[in-house]
Amino acid sequence: MTRTTSFTTDPAVLVLEDGSRHPGRAYGARGTTLGEVVFSTGMTGYQETLTDPSYAGQIVLQTAPHIGNTGMNDEDPESRRIWVAGYIVRDPSRVVSNWRADESLDDALVRDGIVGISGVDTRAITRVLRSAGSMRGGVFSGEAAELAAEEQLRLVREAPEMSGQNLSAEVSVAAAQVTPAADGVERIGNLAVLDLGVKQATILNLAARGFEVHVLPQDVTIEGIRAIDPVAVFYSNGPGDPAASGDHVALLRAVLDEKLPFFGICFGNQLLGRALGFGTYKLPFGHRGINQPVLDKQTGRVEITAHNHGFAVDAPLEGEVDSPNGYGRVEVSHIGLNDNVVEGLRALDIPAFSVQYHPEAAAGPHDANYLFDRFRDLVVAHTSRPTMEASK
């Protein structure tokens, strides 16, 4: 597909809660959008970023200057729609030129009602966010761009902060969805996936390891999980503050009490931390992008990984510690090398582990994809143990 996209000179403005104003051009839908302004450092994969449910409630700024040249296609979306609250780019492509493209990025933004802005100095805005931290903001275009500056700032400052928000119900499926194990692989059993904002690439990676993947609504009960006779439980990525997800923590504690193998990624890592008895806290500006270095303490290998999180687990980086909630010994398994943030947890006395980043990593890199194999091996070892003990 090669075509020239619509290009506008309609005015728009980005307003941050510190009072700064960044005028630009309307991009995508017209109107007003409010949310937490964050930046993503990925050089590629904007379609996967836009359709990642973890970005619900956030206005995403792309640090890569040129966005949209490959358009949007029907094969790569990570979920059923675009989830970002708003979109900030410097130079949107005037031309879509890719054989896989089905529509332009700006057309997709209009279709899903995403208010964006282009033609702003994204580098300068990123420097503000890195210094002051992520903050609330608003994009105003169309008639909203004509509102008085004082009114726009008032709307921004009255918007809810990300801290304290539980957004899981907004992004989760309403009813269970099942993806069978991939053809040609040995079937392991049913996997209960709590959908807190799961990505399609995660589901496909789990199915490729032999799991029949049952994606369950975020309000499922322990009885609902037991009903599918799972061999393991998985908690997905997702938006919001882990401190506001007490029900999901209680559910996870019930899972751990039953000794079911568990793997969590991103939001799931934070909820495992809380279930084990650790706290969580908000990072100044978070980790978002596909170029974050992480140390796997078990192998000593440094991986380049994909991240999207604004909260982190508060746990000792070195040594083994006892779970405050009585689940035995726990260690931090992965550490972010940019700022020494906890990037993974491993329980040593129960079959549970988690990472703060994305091993499915659409659109890359794939350094951490082995974690799905590690989970498969854990489940196989756990499910075969009773048979082995009975044979002694």
From TrEMBL:
Residues 1-191 are annotated as: CPSase. Residues 10-140 form the Carbamoyl-phosphate synthase small subunit N-terminal domain. Pathway: Pyrimidine metabolism; UMP biosynthesis via de novo pathway; (S)-dihydroorotate from bicarbonate: step 1/3; Amino-acid biosynthesis; L-arginine biosynthesis; carbamoyl phosphate from bicarbonate: step 1/1. InterPro entries: Anth_synth/Amidotransfase, CarbamoylP_synth_ssu, CarbamoylP_synth_ssu_N, CarbP_synth_ssu_N_sf, Class_I_gatase-like, CPSase_GATase1, GATASE. Belongs to the CarA family. Composed of two chains; the small (or glutamine) chain promotes the hydrolysis of glutamine to ammonia, which is used by the large (or ammonia) chain to synthesize carbamoyl phosphate. Tetramer of heterodimers (alpha,beta)4. GO terms for biological process: 'de novo' pyrimidine nucleobase biosynthetic process; 'de novo' UMP biosynthetic process; glutamine metabolic process; L-arginine biosynthetic process. It catalyses: hydrogencarbonate + L-glutamine + 2 ATP + H2O = carbamoyl phosphate + L-glutamate + 2 ADP + phosphate + 2 H(+); L-glutamine + H2O = L-glutamate + NH4(+). CDD domains: GATase1_CPSase. L-glutamine binds at S54, G238, G240, F267, Q270, N308, G310, F311. Small subunit of the glutamine-dependent carbamoyl phosphate synthetase (CPSase). CPSase catalyzes the formation of carbamoyl phosphate from the ammonia moiety of glutamine, carbonate, and phosphate donated by ATP, constituting the first step of 2 biosynthetic pathways, one leading to arginine and/or urea and the other to pyrimidine nucleotides. The small subunit (glutamine amidotransferase) binds and cleaves glutamine to supply the large subunit with the substrate ammonia. It is an enzyme of class 6 (ligase). Pfam families: CPSase_sm_chain (PF00988), GATase (PF00117). The gene is carA. The active site is at C266 (nucleophile), H358, E360. One of its GO terms (molecular function) is glutaminase activity. Its EC number is 6.3.5.5. This is Carbamoyl phosphate synthase small chain.
